[in-house]
């Protein structure tokens, strides 16, 4: 009887330990928007953003025993596309009838909520085309670190809060590339 009570107590705790969380919605970076406005006039439209099949489908990110899912579509490639759409729209650089198209491939998407120091890395290939001509093709990577806790109840929410900031950093590196800005002019 005592063993049964232990099992009944352990099952809900184990179920809670392996929950799925949703990444916070992307919030456009003021610095990124200003970079786009400073490069004005630029105009582009968004093409497809896909996942690199070699690195998995990027439908979720493991955070210890939890998994984090994208709030946009069914993958983090769509999250990245949505982030770009927000910033390009606010920055006045998105036009559905632009001759220049920006597309991409999410190559790496990892958040490691280690005890002590957690890290996050995002890598994507960005491609700018005018018609069939490729004007820009480059891989950008953003990595960041933050303090993390032993307690998952603290570490997991902190890791999910950091995720949009990693995406902001990735897009900042894209906008800081003069070749990219020239390609979307």
Automatic annotation (TrEMBL):
It comes from Paraburkholderia sediminicola. The keyword Signal applies. Keywords: Signal. It comes from the Bacteria. Residues 1-23 form the signal peptide. The lineage of its organism: Bacteria, Pseudomonadati, Pseudomonadota, Betaproteobacteria, Burkholderiales. The keyword Signal applies. This is Lipoprotein.
């Amino acid at each position: 009887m005592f063993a049964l009570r232990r099992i009944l107590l352990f099952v809900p705790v184990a179920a809670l330990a392996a929950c799925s969380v949703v990444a916070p919605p992307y919030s456009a970076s003021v610095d990124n928007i200003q970079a786009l406005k400073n490069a004005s006039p630029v105009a582009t439209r968004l093409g497809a953003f896909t996942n690199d099949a070699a690195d998995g489908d990027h439908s979720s990110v493991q955070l210890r025993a939890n998994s984090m899912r994208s709030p946009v579509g069914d993958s983090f490639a769509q999250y990245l596309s949505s982030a770009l759409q927000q910033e390009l729209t606010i920055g006045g650089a998105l036009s559905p009838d632009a001759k220049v198209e920006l597309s991409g491939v999410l190559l790496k998407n990892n958040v490691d909520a280690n005890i002590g120091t957690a890290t996050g890395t995002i890598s994507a290939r960005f491609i700018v085309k005018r018609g069939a001509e490729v004007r820009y093709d480059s891989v950008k990577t953003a990595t960041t670190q933050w303090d993390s806790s032993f307690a998952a109840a603290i570490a997991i929410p902190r890791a999910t809060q950091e995720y949009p900031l990693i995406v902001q950093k990735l897009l900042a590196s894209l906008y800081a590339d003069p070749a990219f800005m020239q390609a979307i002019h």
